[in-house]
Amino acid sequence: MTKPGTMFEVIGGFDSIDKLVTAFYKRVGNHPKLIPIFPDDLTETARKQRMFLTQFFGGPRLYSEERGHPMLRKRHLPFEITAERKDAWLECMNAALEEAEIEEPYKTAIFEKLTMTAHHMMNTP
Fold first, then answer.
1. Which of 23, 92, 110, 111 could form a disulfide with 99 if both were Cys (CB 3.0 to 4.6 A apart)?
2. pTM strictly above 0.85
3. What is the gyration radius of the CA atoms in the chain, in angstroms?
4. By its UniProt entry, which PANTHER family does this protein fall under (predicted)?
């Protein structure tokens, strides 16, 4: 169930999430700083990201229904996430938000929320 007025709804729902994730992983798969911590085949990673962002932005709780509580930090601990990789991840996401044509003020709000999350994921000096 989607609540009216959620970020998920105002940016265009599943279609916009799909465009964003597709644009994002196109960049991640080619970014020299990110390639070492991502699988060669990003299909499953992108599928999980679509479910997560749908839920994170107030849409249906697809991620929790399939995978349980997101526990983002714990799930990311096996990967060396440095400040440099966090910045590379955010660079890819910022470009993906542009390509997916997420409009203001939503684009800035999303980027700010994901920036806080990215800072929280850092686990390696």
1. 23
2. yes
3. 14
4. TWO-ON-TWO HEMOGLOBIN-3 (PTHR47366:SF1)
Q: Whole domain around residue 82: which residue ranges?
A: 7-121
Reported as a single tens digit per residue, the pLDDT across 42-62 is 999 999 999 999 999 999 999
3-state secondary structure of 98: helix
User: Tens digit of pLDDT for each residue in 31-43?
Assistant: 999 999 999 999 9
| Number of domains into which the chain is organized | 1
Is position 36 within any domain?
A: yes
**Cβ burial 71-98 (10 Å sphere, 16+ → b, else e):** eeeeeeeeeebeeebbebbbebbbebbe
Residues belonging to the chain:
125
Dist. CA 71–CA 33, nearest whole Å: 24
